[in-house]
Specification:
This protein is mainly alpha-helical. The protein has three helices and no strands. The longest helix has 36 residues.
Length: 109
């Protein structure tokens, strides 16, 4: 999870203006992403266990995995959207509390 967050920040650093704030920067944002990744993994594991994919006959495993994907896609979309919204909410709240983006200019000028 952390390496993906670092990779996203690195790539978005090239795509944004020179003094833009990283996508995930603060400790609260990292904790939120980590918690969501753990929750998503737990839900996917629960779905996998409830559907008993591992007990399927060898030629029906592919069908069982496709059936499981049908349940996992909406869960992933909802959790991913919630994480994106919460990340922006935390980012906006931290900017309002005094964390401002450096403008690249000195205030004395």
């Amino acid at each position: 999870t952390f390496s993906v967050v670092d990779l996203v920040n690195y790539v978005l650093g090239f795509l944004q203006v020179s003094v833009a704030k990283p996508f995930v920067e603060s400790a609260s944002q990292v904790h939120m992403v980590l918690g969501a990744a753990l929750a998503m993994g737990a839900l996917f594991g629960f779905i996998f266990g409830v559907l008993d994919v591992e007990d399927e006959v060898s030629y029906q495993i592919r069908l069982a995995l496709l059936r499981e994907e049908r349940y996992c896609y909406p869960v992933g979309a909802i959790l991913g959207g919630a994480v994106g919204f919460t990340n922006e909410y935390i980012r906006d709240a931290e900017e309002k509390c005094g964390g401002r983006i450096p403008s690249g200019y000195d205030d004395d000028i």
